[in-house]
Specification:
The chain is mostly helical and 207 residues long. The radius of gyration is 17 Å and the shape is globular. It starts with 5 loop residues before the first helix and ends in a 14-residue tail after the last helix. The strands form 2 sheets. The chain has a two-stranded antiparallel sheet. It has a two-stranded antiparallel ribbon with strand order 3-4. A hairpin with a 2-residue loop joins strand 1 and strand 2. The model has no long low-confidence stretch (mean pLDDT 95). The protein has a single domain, classed as Four Helix Bundle (Hemerythrin (Met), subunit A) (Up-down Bundle), CATH 1.20.120.
């Protein structure tokens, strides 16, 4: 954990919580991987898509960037909203296929690699992500967000209530709030959360 201190250490702790929760959730699946997952995905594809949060952070740590194109996790998520939905769907299907005959074991191994790689990384290092160059500490909360959100999707597919660790939930909810604020929708959010308006259908962070 050398180099991880202050706010970045809190983000690391939240990421590790989210990883542990996702691994534990996937470990509860007892067959039925072809049951409905989310949208066009079956459960296998949904779990695979969520596990990309582990695969991508491990891969990106080996891809140094020359420039800092994005300075925050919120900016990264905002850019992710422009990706072709069919591209995302196909990535999920391929990620599901990659899980092989032991999806839970595959996810657990990917999780162990991701945590070890992040702990050893320099949080100030610039890495190349799909949306541009970012510092590791800025990118990591996006992985926590994906694990929390898609963990909730997996839980729903299994008929379970989401069990999200507090630090991971704070990180994910805080990031979602920041994205909404940067969209200029803070007033809509405030009115909704104070019971003064219904949630606008277009007030979303990701789909």
């Amino acid at each position: 954990m050398s180099g991880w201190s202050g706010a970045s250490a809190q983000s690391l702790a939240a990421f590790e919580e989210a990883v542990q929760a996702y691994v534990a959730l996937v470990g509860q699946v007892r067959g039925g991987w072809d049951r409905p997952g989310l949208g066009v995905w079956d459960l296998r594809s949904l779990v695979g898509h969520g596990a990309r949060a582990l695969v991508t952070v491990t891969a990106y740590l080996d891809r140094p960037a020359a420039t800092e194109d994005l300075t925050s996790a919120a900016a990264y998520l905002a850019g992710s909203g422009s990706v072709d939905p069919e591209v995302v769907a196909e990535r999920g299907r391929q990620a599901g296929a990659d899980l092989g005959d032991d999806p839970a074991g595959w996810v657990a191994e990917a999780a162990a690699r991701a945590v070890a790689a992040v702990r050893a990384a320099d949080p100030d290092a610039l890495v190349t992500t799909v949306n541009g160059g970012m510092r590791v500490a800025a990118y990591l909360p996006t992985r926590t967000f994906e694990l929390v959100v898609h963990g909730a999707d997996v839980a729903a597919a299994l008929g379970l209530d989401p069990d999200v660790p507090p630090a991971a939930l704070r990180e994910a909810a805080g990031l979602a709030t920041q994205v909404v604020l940067e969209q200029g929708r803070g007033q809509d959010l405030l009115l909704t959360l104070t019971g003064r308006a219904d949630w606008p259908a277009d007030l979303v962070v990701i789909r």
